[in-house]
Amino acid sequence: MGKTIVIHGRAIYGGHAEGEALVSEMPLMGWGNVKPNEGCTVERNHPLYKVCFKDKILVFPYMRGSGGFVIYADSKKFGMNPAAMLVTESISVIVTMAMRLKQPVLTDFDIDPMTVIETGDYVEVNGDEGCVIVHKKSDGEEKE
Amino acid sequence: MKLTDEEKRILDGEQGYLASKCMKFLVAYGEAADAECLVDIDGTVDLHGSRNPYWTDDFRITDDEIFEAARRGEKFKVPTFANKPTPGFIVDGYEHCCTWPDHDPDYHKKRMDYMKPLIQMGMVPTLSCNYYLTSTYWPTAGTHCSWGESSAIPWCNANLGARTNFDGGFQMAYLGKVPCYDLHLDEKRKATVLCTYVGEKPLATDMDYDLFGWAAGEKLGNKVPAFLNIGKPTLSQFVKMNSSLNTGGQVRMYHVPGVTPEAATLEDAFHGEKPQEEIEITREDLEKTYHMLNYATDKHIDMVFLGCPHYNIVEIQKAARLLEGRRCMAELWVMTSPGVYDMAVKMGLRDTIEQTGAKLMSGTCMDELRGQLPPYTVFAMDASKQNYYSTGHLYPRKTQCWYGTMEDCIDAALTGYWHGEWR
User: Fold this and answer.
1) Of A8, A18, B60, B126, which is most buried by a Cβ count within 10 Å?
2) Between chains, do B149 and A31 touch, taking CB under 8 Å as contact?
3) At what angle do helices B384-393 and B235-245 cross, to 10 degrees?
4) B55 lies in the same domain as B158
5) For residue B266, what are the domain limits?
6) B236, B269, B291 — which closes off a domain?
7) For residue A141, is it within any domain?
8) Which of B56, B247, B390 minimises the CB distance to A99?
């Protein structure tokens, strides 16, 4: 285990969760391009195409596209949901998605999670305190 | 979140159970969104004209609650328009669609009946992603709205200068209130990015604007840009660009100095401040997007889908002229709103289109119908949005999509073969 980084944000939906980070460099898109029963994006050209987000701390810069982004929350009905989401920039549809997902969803960070979290890091999310503890998987250089 | 005395009384049940339930949702949503207060809607609301009046399970207004409210004679507080029903069904032209269950008259009746209580409460059954083109009732500049269709959000914010987040729903229509944050606030509406088109060839065709919207959206994400050097887009071109801006990205508000109402000048767009960022969109960016959308390999076309966003009457006229007197070799669906469909019938355009073997339909789209399509795999479309979602909606079917102009697509329908190319 490498070093530990603490960042602070605002909870759209509170609660506690922890797990391995899955970082999406590309924004995420819903509607037909998310498969809630398989717990993955099926957006063609997406680096995370068919990569399962079940139980992960899903980190992404922003959403794009249809209001069907709320279908991300439907993954919970299939037990395929992420444990938490950390999103750099939020808009209204992220809020309604979070209210439907009922798992911690945080935004408005002091340090952009996209710059410090890498896939495979172990992340503790305390939504009630707005606090995210990142245990780096290695002591390597921080992300550029 | 700060509530007025009246809002507190609604929350406490003074106006009944349903008003209290709607207010509970607005408070929870407003607090989650970090809104300071609610604002009275003096513009309009849109909602999906069907199930799921709101998407959040804890606060869902049930079918029975809507039915009872309609029976009591309750009305929406503000003018309310219907987006496409979801899940999709074909409103007009379903009889010959050859897909299940949409071709079934009983299914059609069931879906239409389902909307009746909402219509009784005041929802205008525009049933379209561009309900704003047939509703003839636009919110005026500066008014507060609650719209919920991604491709329509910039029409409200940028083209009309009214104010909306991406959140239209039953609760907002019922109470005439919405959390006041983000694009309801002056500060959030100013441009921060100067986005200039620098291609040697000016933007001219509808496809150019569709591609520009995608390429710009991809670079802008959520940011508010001022667009420079994009010429004078037609209505069809603005509608296409708004759609692709909200597929390749999430540009809910923009300025075109001298064209859109909140910015007579470039200085207005930035509220007198300096751009935080300057980006350029090149002809190569458009070409790259074109090739990303044109990933198909099989040039034998099974099906052509036109009408994303729903074709307006001028686009239908154009399609009818290209088709007149010819015979389609591939399946062709031309999709529009129910309002424009009626006009096309009156003008004889439906007959012109359908005599070729093509189908004119209204109220949905290929993607909203999800898997309820003929079992085809090779498609052609003139909309980046429909193209980019189709592989997901039809997953795991191995879909191939060609992308081009309306002319390319109609040629493909008439010949059964894709001849389109980048030019």
Assistant:
1) B126
2) no
3) 40
4) yes
5) 190-291
6) B291
7) no
8) B56
Its sign, for the CA torsion B410, B344, B115, B239, is positive
- Dihedral Cα B312, B316, B317, B322, nearest 10 deg: 140
The two tokens of residue B207 are: 């496809």
A66 is an active site residue: yes
Q: B27 with B149, same domain?
A: yes
Residues of B in contact with A95 (CB under 8 A): 29, 32-33
Matching residue, tokens 């959520």: B222
Q: Specify the DSSP class assigned to residue B309.
A: E
ipTM for the complex shown: 0.95
pLDDT tens digit at each of 423 positions of chain B: 999 999 999 999 999 999 999 999 999 999 999 999 999 999 999 998 765 545 677 888 988 999 999 999 999 999 999 999 988 999 999 998 888 899 999 999 999 999 999 999 999 999 999 999 987 799 999 999 999 999 999 999 999 999 999 999 999 999 999 999 999 999 999 999 999 999 999 999 999 999 999 999 999 999 999 999 999 999 999 999 999 999 999 999 999 999 999 999 999 999 999 999 999 999 999 999 999 999 999 999 999 999 999 999 999 999 999 999 999 999 999 999 999 999 999 999 999 999 999 999 999 999 999 878 888 999 999 999 999 999 999 999 889 999 999 999 999 999 999 999 998
Same domain, B241 and B276: yes
Residue A66: CATH number of its domain: 3.50.30.10
B17 and B132, same domain (yes or no): yes
Task: Give the mutation candidate from A42, A77, A99 for the B interface (greatest B CB count, under 10 A).
Answer: A99
Q: Does the global pTM surpass 0.80?
A: yes
Beta carbons of A96 and B29 less than 8 Å apart = yes
User: At B61, which CATH number?
Assistant: 3.30.499
Q: Which of B186, B212, B246 is the last residue of a domain?
A: B186
Domain extent at residue A25: 4-135
Residue A130 belongs to a domain: yes
Say if residues B260 and B189 touch (Cβ distance below 8 Å).
no
Task: Give the single-character DSSP code of B138.
Answer: P
Q: Are strands A105-107 and A84-87 parallel, antiparallel or unpaired?
A: parallel
